[in-house]
């Protein structure tokens, strides 16, 4: 029987020992950083015996154990009593993972090398912490060259005005370098130091936020700062930035989501609103300040339910409609613009129709196409064929395909790239509609003008009747009638155009569903509330002004006897 | 006593993250008087250690973006050497004090400081610091903004982290 306890090395006594004896068992909690255990032991045990128990329970060697109580390290020769360790108290344990000498140095090394990712914090204007480059202790003196030499072969940067210790200027210089040399970006991304840095969302956020350009952006659009404060989103964004394949995947997904959105009635308007209200100012701000800096546009994400993050290719489409009534110029924004609506065959006829007005549509188009935003968009489209597929799979596209099948001339027109680009721009389509309506007014009021338009040479359509374009009766109403085969080509053309426009505007698959009356319902109500009781005249005025109430009112007041 | 027992002082640096705003606004917003929103860090072996959204972090004392501490509390002395302490912190950083476990109210810098303080000296940090979250949550306002608070993590910049778990979350 284990009568003697204190000197017995094999302490099985925790179970067997007799509590009634004057040597009592105490239960001491032993706590490591990772877990804790309760160990029962005689209260007058020595630390050595205690360690024996512990080494059994924790599966560690005796010399790996370091016991700490009340700030003191328990030495083997001490007793528990000596340190005041009593029942129910907690003793801390550290299990050394390596022999003492090397563990100290390794932990120091790990501490300093893990300091490098943090070294880039730009919370202060002064240059980052020493040990910026990967081996600790390389360049003590000047910070910026160390920082950049850690990036691999960006040594060209080191000559660029390293005298400035201002980290902001450094960033700008880097951006300029980036823009001039696209290869550099991929080099940078591959550097493990950068990857390390980018995995730290707090650091990235700090970097982004303290950039004054970004701050301006944030002021203009508080959504950005909201997004930046969301760590999940930041993390996701950084994953995206690191992984181009993932980025493409996400682009694809959200374009698909967007195209689905458009098929919902009213969804197109929501998208358009989204675009004009939010993205345009943001991206025009981003573009003028950042150029092609990928991180900037990553920060420009919205957390609306529909629209996850987008990337830098979403340059704002310049507004080709400065003055109203000019021809819609081509702005090719396919999947990546907010509207992938499409319509066909109107551009060529448009380019001829406004000629009386003296505007050269193609000239406008050239300017637009050559802007860098356009080019990046087109590049993106060419890289991601999925976008085109998404576009084509939207429901309204099918109806258009059907009408295409009915009219082969339309098909040839659709292949015209200008036509395509007009299709994808919603404001283009709207302006087209206005023009269309204006034309109808012209037809009724100035029939003599029409002959000059017919020979305008609508490409792809044989212009058979030289002059007799003006229809006998009133021009076909904009309610979109079915094309009748016996009218003149341009008439048919116009009807088709109207069909397209109706389809586009209404977002429905039939050609007769949406009337201006329905579209302008709200405005009509407003007008009648104001006292304009002539519904027909209201409608005409609204059609003529494209839904603009104030202009419609003026029209009405001008035409009515007061 | 052993002549080998070198002892090292342990201090608690206490910062008011609200920079005085809590003292003024808390009666209005919460209905109770809070003298500050406390962030704490343990200073031992010439370095400051704290826990935030980025995990366990260390830096030079007083060198975080929070600036100088509001108050410094003396926690006593410890025999724990640098090596053992680093091992301990590394273990903590890998297990129970990883960055992604940070929760503003329940598992925060003060929780960490409390634990380390007990490890080093056996004593806890002052109760008014550790009781702060409970006090806030006991007010209706605190309950109302609780979802927002669940998403905040405080990570003063300017140090090196221990857990080395970048990108592995």
Sum this structure up briefly.
The complex is a heterodimer of chains A (562) and B (169). With 562 residues, chain A is mainly α.
Describe the structure.
Chain A: Residues 101-136, 331-346 have a biased composition (Low complexity). Chain A: Pfam families: UBA, ubiquitin, UBQLN1. Chain A: Residues 26-96 form the Ubiquitin-like domain. Chain A: This is Ubiquilin-4. The complex is a heterodimer of chains A (562) and B (169). By secondary structure, chain A is mainly α. Chain A is built from 30 helices and five strands. A five-stranded mixed sheet of chain A has the order 2-1-5-3-4, with helices on one face. Chain A is elongated, with a radius of gyration of 37 Å. The relative contact order of chain A is 0.05. Chain B has a single domain, classed as endopeptidase fold (from Nostoc punctiforme) (Alpha-Beta Complex), CATH 3.90.1720.30. Helix content of chain B is 32%, strand content 22%. Chain B has seven helices and six strands. Chain B has helices at residues 21-29, 82-94, 109-121, 127-130, 132-137, 140-144, 146-149, and strands at 8-16, 38-44, 47-52, 55-59, 71-78, 160-161. In chain B, strands 5-1-2-3-4-6 form a six-stranded antiparallel sheet, with helices on one face. The longest helix of chain B is centred in the middle third of the chain and has 13 residues, at 82-94. Chain B is globular, with a radius of gyration of 16 Å. In chain B, 44% of the residues are buried. Classes of the chains: A mainly alpha (562), B alpha+beta (169).
